[in-house]
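Thread: "does anyone have the structure for this chain?"

Original post by V.I.:
We have the sequence but no experimental structure in hand. Need at least a predicted one for the grant figures.
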Amino acid sequence: MAQTLTFLCISTYFKGNDFLKACKEAGNKVFLITAKKLENKPWVKESIDEFFYVEEGEDGTYDMTEIINGLAYVMRNRPIDRVVALDDFDVEKAAHIREYFRIPGMGQTTGRYFRDKLAMRTKAAESGILVPGFSSLFNDEDINRFIVKYPGPWMIKPRSEASATGIKKMHDATELWQTIHELGDKRHAYLVEQYKPGNVYHVDSISYNGRVIFSWNSKYLAPPFDVAHGGGIFRSVTVPFDSAEDHALETLAVDLLKAFGLKHSASHTEVIRCHDDGKYYFLETSSRVGGANLSEMVEASSGINLWKEWAKMETAEAKGRDYKLPLVRKDYSGIIISLTRQEWPDMSVFNDPEIVWRMNDPYHVGLVVRSKSREKVVELLDKYAEIIQKDYHASAPAPNRPSH
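Reply from O.Q.:
Generated one for you, tokens below.
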């Protein structure tokens, strides 16, 4: 009889249904740890054998001792073979659980490279990968040396928040020091980085046995920071295939994930091509599928569902079987997402045959388009951006921490 493995998935945000479904379809038992407040979200319940709910503390964190104690009780009669974090915020929890119960997979040291922006920058720089100038905020003299070496503007970033939340931009040393002093006893949890204007890209990939077996390059049409802080419209489009951009991005991502020691996982890496020198600089990475529905966009162009393939690959690896990626298609795709003034905006105005996915969330408009022609994709995204800006768009201030 085929061996049934038990996968413990962790997602304290509502995401990852495709992974959970594919994991169950691959013949596994699926357990899910999620936040109590997400109990009534439309999880794929038929694919989940057991739910475990955890309560969020007042500071937005979860008590790991409580989680470990609860799992120790579960494991008395239900062994767990693999632990998978489906969101950025759960990577550390998963690493902690693996190390405590000696479950195979990424431990806490490697996990830090995918969560802690200071650890990932330090490791990338040590590995010969270009990064914008940066400094920890531990020591005042180090910060002053940084200010002299790297002219402003600068960004102060939390070391372990996802997306563009909690990021501030400063233009002179007085403003920078004022912001650092305002952080008070929390300043060690932040870093400062030189702001480099440029085009921001994302590389969405799957690693198997320490090798990148799938890598897809796309370019944001407005940087995520500008969207989050300037109330813009989020857009991204596939990079031209076999172009210099395409090769440079793939090379950087492959070198980076190898240096970071990623064995088996999906990952989402952000890179900036600086306007001043035309070089590609590493911004950040994570060991999960990219957020903001980017997986829908990647699937539209490549035919590869990152969540499903990640689940199949994890299962094959755990069972000691070989995993093979399905055939990859090469179309162009683009995504556009915006907050709207209307709770359920009328989407009938968007009726082009290239539309392959529509967002179905209140106060949002979102579309993915696909075409053989990149020009067509960009043309449609430009057209939709104009319509959205005029008739639908609303902006909200960027939160200090992400909302659920």
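V.I.: this helps a lot. The radius of gyration is 21 Å.
O.Q.: and The CA atoms of residues 241 and 247 lie 9 Å apart.
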